[in-house]
Amino acid sequence: MKANAFNGKGMPAGARSDRSAVWPLLLSRKVADLAIYLRTMIIFLLVWQGASLWIGNPILLPTPIDVARSFVELAGSGELVSNMLASVWRLLLSFVIAAAVAIPLGFAMGLNRILFEMIDPTVELLRPISGIAWIPLGLFILGIGDALPTAIMFYGAFFPLLINTITAVRAVDRSYVNAARTLGVGEATVLRQVIVPAALPGILVGARLAAGAGWMSMVAAELIGAPSGLGFAVEWYRELLMTPKVLAFIVLIGLMGYLFDRVLRALQRGMTGWAEPRGVS
Amino acid sequence: MTRLADSHLLRAAVLPVTLLVVWQLAVMLHTPSPRTPLPTHVVETAWTLLKTGDLPLALLQSFGRVLAGFAWAAAFGLVLGALMGTYRAFDRALDPLVESFRPIAPIALLPLAILWFGTGTPAAAFIVGYAAFFPMIVNTIHGVKSVDPQLVRAARTLGVGRFTILRTVVLPGAMPYVFVGARLALGVAWTSIIAAELAVGAKAGGGSTGGIGQMMFVFYAYSVDLNGIIVCMVSVGIVAMIIDRGLRRLEYWMLPWKR
């Protein structure tokens, strides 16, 4: 039985008997990783607890237990969820608008040299002005409300998306396009079936950078000029000197940032797992 | 050749010039209020602010804070990053902490920083340092890990000491990544100093903490000068561009083997 000498992954037949041993090994490594993770976090929490007992002022540094308690309390009263939903809704809205404008524009600029030469200098002039620097002017134009954080986030997400789309479209291997054309494929089909899939990995990297940049500028915008959202809640409880609640919201901001990154990474792997992701930041 | 350069410049100029002219004409034709910003007024305000020295002073104050925060971040980030890149035990023990704190937007810590340090320079420098720390450490770890182990082994075979290997093999090998980290870190630092000063100004009621963000806040809340705000925005952009270009140039100059 020659065919049996190798299994599907090209492993020698002798390795087969070890294969049953691989799973417990992997599992034990996962358990070990988890143990190290827990050890680090427990030491961190103990240090925090010790420091807050030593300082002895719950307004300056509350204990982790206080923070956990107010987290549960805020979650129970629905305040956590309503502020989170306000922020996430703005994030999604501005992200969708930014993608809808930046990705088609990026394709147009990546494919057409004259258009690129006309628009790119203006983009490079505006890009260094961070979204946060627009907040005072935005407050004048849009006032305090939903519109300001959404607009600032749109601005923050727009440039990473646009620049990564342009770079990705330009990096598409010309020989694929030429091969498709030689075979008589129409321009629209070339775009849809060759250029879009080849550019997708770069665009998704841009999306991940955009979500990160947008999240950061949105927290700033909410802190200064919004009647709701996570940034607003942090500042509100700071003014009331309720530090455990401030920290509870900060923890939530970290969790949400982590989750967005995870979701976009999973999307990246699922949609373009074949590619080595590279980005321009 | 000159005609080609001319056409490049022409194409580059069309859009900004059109936008400026439309802006100027639209305001001049409507004149809704004397406060509406005009390109010509922006230039005038910029000239006045430059002449009185207010704008350069504010930019210098902000940049000084950025450097103070960045120095801390770079020192901690480089040392911890080198340790975590070299020793697996360090990496596994500290990675959970780095990954737990990294997603927290630096600006979200501003209220906490105000509670701890008041509304002065330390609060702003804390935010800047926090923001700059993560790009530094992540890129340093990556750089140290990406050093070719063959080079390290070769040096060790030749009997070179541990510290000399670190100095002459590992650090130069990690430098390109460290530079990327520094460039990203200074970029975020500059962005977050504006946010910190804006928010500190907003909370302190326009105190004398200074800086370009504070200046913007004063234009916003007290003198209601939109032209001034736009001057500040443009100069924030110019400084960001100078930081980026300057570090790229420094990298080109210091790492000749990467050209």
Question: Key features?
Answer:
heterodimer, A: 281 residues, mainly alpha, MetI-like fold, 10 helices, 79% helix, 0% strand, disordered N terminus, B: 259 residues, 2 domains, elongated
Can you give a write-up of this model?
The complex is a heterodimer of chains A (281) and B (259). In chain A, 79% of the residues lie in helices and 0% in strands. Chain A contains ten helices and no strands. In chain A, helix 3 (79-111) crosses helix 9 and helix 9 (230-239) packs antiparallel against helix 10 (243-272). Chain A has helices spanning 16-55, 64-77, 79-111, 113-126, 135-142, 147-170, 174-182, 187-225, 230-239, 243-272. The longest helix of chain A is centred in the N-terminal third of the chain and has 40 residues, at 16-55. Mean pLDDT of chain A is 83; it is low at 1-17. With 281 residues, chain A is mostly helical. Chain A folds into two domains: 2-55; 64-272, MetI-like fold (Orthogonal Bundle), CATH 1.10.3720. With 259 residues, chain B is an all-alpha fold. Chain B has two domains: 1-32; 38-258, MetI-like (MetI-like fold). Chain B is elongated. Chain B starts with a helix and ends in a 5-residue tail after the last helix. The mean pLDDT of chain B is 84. The chains are: A mainly alpha (281), B mainly alpha (259).
